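Lab channel / #folding
Pinned by the channel admin:
"Please post every new chain as: sequence first, then the structure tokens as a reply. Keep commentary short and put observations after the output so the thread stays searchable."

First post following the new format, from NK:
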Amino acid sequence: MTTQLSGQPIVILSDKAQRTIGRDAQRMNISAGRIVADAVRTTLGPKGMDKMLVDNLGDIVITNDGATILSEMDIQHPAAKMLVEVSKAQEDEVGDGTTTAVVVSGELLKKAEDLLDQNIHPTVIVHGYRIANDLSQKILNEIAEDVSSSDKDKLQKIAMTAMTGKSAERAREKLAKLAVDAVTLVADESNGKVTIDQDNIKIETREGGSIDDTELIKGVIIDKERVHSGMPEHVKDAKIALVDSALEVKETETDAEIQITDPAKLKEFLNQEEAMLREMVGKIKSAGANVLFCQKGIDDIAQHFLAKEGIFAVRRVKKSDMEKLARATGGRIVTSLDDLTGKDLGEAGSVEEKKISGEEMVFVTDCKSPKAVSLLVRGGTEHVVEEVKRGLEDAIGGVAAALEVGKIVGGGGAVEIELSKRIKDEAERIGGREQLALTAFAEALEVIPRSLAENAGLDPIDKLVELKAAHENSEQKWFGLDVFEGKVKNMFEDGVIEPLKIKTQAIKSASEAVEMILRIDDVISAKDLNKESGAPQMPPGGMGGIGGMGGY
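Reply from TO:
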């Protein structure tokens, strides 16, 4: 890149640098975003299709989960990566609705391109989109219905809606109940506000059996086995010690050498080590514990003494699992055995080692009021199990989002059509060119019911006309598309319910990402373009490339 000053050319960028300016930059960015949205659009809804993602080693993932598809795809275009961030933000914040967020982003970009072709300036479009986004948030909060933890029926319908169209659908009623039970068990309520940490719901997967064999454990599953075969396999009325220190003789912090010349002294030295380990086990026994979970190692001799005392012990338990055990059993993690007392012990009705699909696992069950639970997901093959897990995660995210906000809306495109109608009405009251941007935003939201119809093999134009006609009546705001019967129905009565947070987050993150993309009018490559140094690189063919994933 050069510029002219007093007849002398000034070089600013090297010859290797790539630069795209103005409308070309905007068009390329918009095209990249739309390609990403189109990649996941066919997965939307109960009748959406699946994607097979193949990596360089030939490993495959089969899913219709938007977040999984986009995270596994090798996307290189910088603007396209921004839509991946939209799906990641949706996944982190809500746990479901990633495909909706990305598809809405793609349609907003498409409508923006039409306005750019009419010579509407990008800042005008961005301003209009911002107004429409704020208006959407306000309307959504106005029309949403209330829900609480006592509305188990509605919560189960939210979970079933989240799983519809996934592999988990065949057992969705049972899985929905498990998801609702899991969320309500770990929910914390203070000052009338519900908070749910989804990390307290541990999902373990094991091949074998069927999806119907999936179960909720009111406690924690630890993917470990007891340290000594002489220990009991099953302990009832367990008193559980949670220890964050090793049951081993400590080594000196500085290099030390002990010289022993007398064999009797060697025996004395070994006896002293043994006595120290015996004392450690004695402290656990005297505290009243009959089960030990240790975050660090347990010496072989200590294992022997624990087995003699009939104490069930597991070593090298992950820190996250230790925290879950504390929440589930009511125990306290101690860092020194000297501090261990009966008050620190957790309680569980049963601690048992079971063999599941050829691997031992420890089940801590029948906890009185567990604030951490586990779900053991079963299925015929690895791919089925993983997809059921993703479906359950979406269901758990949906139920948690509904309880945290306490608001729900109708699915099946009902909420998008109602929003579109109300934003168009507002656009007529707003003068200037922003009116065009508001109308474009409203029309972009219609992509959700249109995609639902297309993916179900229905005529999208006919169905959109039917939906809009139904929404002319203000009492029919929850009328959406039943893709199984191809009819327009009341989604609340049809059991298609979604948490408000899915919609508010999807529209907000989509709008903000699109606004950022539209404001870019100059794309310049980073330095070290051809070096594999980890620095940003341009995709092949300038700014227009989007990488694939192996055979995808």
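NK: The longest strand covers residues 346-356.
TO: also worth noting, The chain has three domains: 21-146+411-519, 151-218+370-405, 221-369.
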